[in-house]
Amino acid sequence: MSRSDIWTPEQVQAHLDKLAGKKPKISALSEREFQAEVMDIANKLGWRFYHTHDSIGSQAGFPDLVMVRGKRLIFAELKTEKGKLSKQQVGWITDLGLCVPVYLWRPSMMQEVIDCLK
């Protein structure tokens, strides 16, 4: 990704404002739709990220996204508004949280997500 592809936080907010008129209410997004939004914003703000697309054979409960930019490393578990954490997810979040920031994000927290990624 070249520096010209990276958006400012203001450009990301303008993008979200524009999308607000075209998509269902953000809190009604499925986990997959929410994840796509988070990855789009992370990409536009210059983050590298990893998501396991097929978790078969992977450790249960590992966070949905691992993101890095400069010296910052973030693990994020994404859930719908009513989504519940599994016992394995709680374990990973607890253990990783002893070392690095680990976030549980929901669609209604989009502004917090943006603020964290700025």
Key phrases:
single chain, alpha+beta, Trna Endonuclease, Chain: A, domain 1, 118 residues, 4 helices, 38% helix, four-stranded mixed β-sheet, 4 strands
What class do helices, strands and sheet pairing give?
alpha+beta
From N to C, what is the helix and strand string? Answer: HHEEEHEH
Secondary structure: number of strands? 4
User: What top-tier CATH class fits best?
Assistant: Alpha Beta
Average residue pLDDT: 86
Portion in beta strands? 15-25%
Largest sheet: 4 strands, mixed
Q: Which fold name fills CATH's third level, the topology?
A: Trna Endonuclease, Chain: A, domain 1
Estimate the helix proportion, in percent: 25-40%
Detail the poorly predicted runs.
none
Oligomer classification: single chain
Our Rg estimate from Cα atoms comes to 14 Å
Number of helices: 4
Ordered list of secondary-structure elements with their pairings:
Layout: H1 9-20, H2 31-44, E1 48-50, E2 65-69, E3 72-78, H3 87-97, E4 102-105, H4 110-117
Parallel strand pairs: 3-4
Antiparallel strand pairs: 1-2, 2-3
Describe it for me?
This protein has 118 residues and is α+β, with helices and mostly antiparallel strands. It has a single domain (3-53, 60-117), classed as Trna Endonuclease, Chain: A, domain 1. The chain is 38% helix and 16% strand. The protein is built from four helices and four strands, in the order ααβββαβα. The chain has helices at 9-20, 31-44, 87-97, 110-117; strands at residues 48-50, 65-69, 72-78, 102-105. A four-stranded mixed β-sheet has the order 1-2-3-4, sandwiched between helices. A hairpin with a 2-residue loop joins β2 and β3. It is globular, with a radius of gyration of 14 Å. The mean pLDDT is 86.
